[in-house]
Amino acid sequence: MNTISRSLARTLRAVFRRAGIKAGPNASLLFEPAGNDLVIQARSPVAAVQYRMPTDGEPERVLVPLEMLDSIEGRSNDLVTIARRPDGRIAVEWTDHGIPQMLVYDEPAKPKDELFLKAPAELTSCQPGFLQSLHEAAVCADRDVVRYALDHLQLRGTASQIVATDGRHILRQGGFSFPWPDDVLVPALGVFGCKELPQDEPVCVGRTDDWVVLRVGPWTLWLWINKDGRFPKVDDLIRPASSASSRLTLSPSDADFLRTSMPSLPCDDQLHDPVTIELNGRVAIRARGEEQTRPTELVLTDSSYSGDAVAINTNRKFLARALKLGFAEFCFFSPNSPALCDDGSRQYLWALLEPVDAIKASDDALRIESPGQRHTATSVHFKHRRTTITMPAKTSEPPVEQPTEQAPAEKPRRRSKPAASAIAGSPIDQAIALRTALRAAAGQTNELIRSLKRQKRQTKLVASTLESLKALQKVAG
Hints:
- The chain has three domains: 2-105, DNA Polymerase III, subunit A, domain 2 (DNA Polymerase III, Chain A, domain 2), CATH 3.10.150.10; 124-232, DNA Polymerase III, subunit A, domain 2 (DNA Polymerase III, Chain A, domain 2, Roll), CATH 3.10.150; 239-396 and 419-476, DNA Polymerase III, subunit A, domain 2 (DNA Polymerase III, Chain A, domain 2).
- Strand 11 and strand 12 form a beta hairpin.
- The strands form five sheets. An eight-stranded antiparallel beta sheet has the order 5-2-3-4-16-15-14-9, covered by helices on one side.
- It has helices at 6-18, 68-72, 130-140, 252-261, 316-324, 427-442, 444-468; strands at residues 2-5, 28-34, 37-43, 47-54, 62-65, 79-84, 90-96, 99-105, 124-126, 152-156, 161-165, 169-174, 183-187, 203-207, 211-216, 219-224, 246-249, 274-279, 283-287, 296-299, 304-307, 310-315, 329-332, 339-342, 346-350, 366-369.
- By secondary structure, it is an alpha+beta fold.
């Protein structure tokens, strides 16, 4: 007889699903004795999950439909017994709010594939955080594969690296020890980031002819090796960071500010989610809504850049991804070349959007300053003298309110606090108020401008999509 808790059944169900192992006509759950332990396993064609638990009883080998977990799972620690009856059928018994429950199953036929997998004799230990590295790589993989195995991760034995790409961005992570000399492809699964797995413990890694094996705590994961899949040669696309023409360095406070504020920035293109990164006397992140004529700027007062002045048009999702990965330094080679983050052991590369669509600076932009330690938008450090880029506005002017013709101009005072716009409400509240005022003031002129812009975007949509991937065409070549 085998005994598990309802809460363990809930955990098993969650991990199996994140590994792509779902209940179905041919999905089975195996209970297998292993000395004084009980091993519970389920598998799919490309993955298997084992859980080992000690037991005081005498466990028996039992095969039941995987859908059993849907019936017995719960948040309580009430026990569930799974035992074979004299007639050969499997009885599952538990209580639900004190009321006895029972299900009886015919034991499924033994699958053609080997159901109980055995781990290799030797496993190599990887440092804590290895599962999180696999999870970050899996996020960069593609789920809709056409030509390359972009829904897989490349585990490089000799280079000790994990590589993932979907053709638009690449993540290469190094510093891992794999007990094999070649490169293998394994499926990019959601199970790596599963909260039910101990993320802060070392992971033991091994390999058989057909499987890569990961063991952490009581869990063992089996990842099928795709021997026929093709993976793009991404190394040729990752240039040395030292060859960058411009380099942006974010302070920790500005990185937190950008992570929090960027999702609230307006957007006029839901397909590409564009923002403009401007390095020209200051560091600014610029966006514009569909019905806005004035852009919204996040001025990063505590960050700096070096090298050439540049305006970068990028998908904000990739910028947010780099921030989530913990990168603080961004390398730009040109407005047409992919952007790069490199901290020595990890490289994150992504394709930029069409540079001609970068949002130009505006004297009347709605500016929100970050609450940096220096509290100034103009004191940035850069190696080369400021140059002029193709933008009509003077972006080096401090973000102070301009005097009107009716009122005498007050002498600008040096501020040690963020601009008033930064504390007069959230960015979205200010954007809504601005939109309302513009509608009343601009009238038919603004409507005509919006119509022309919409027409322009429609004619350029397909071309813009293709151009945004031009920098990574070698990946699919």
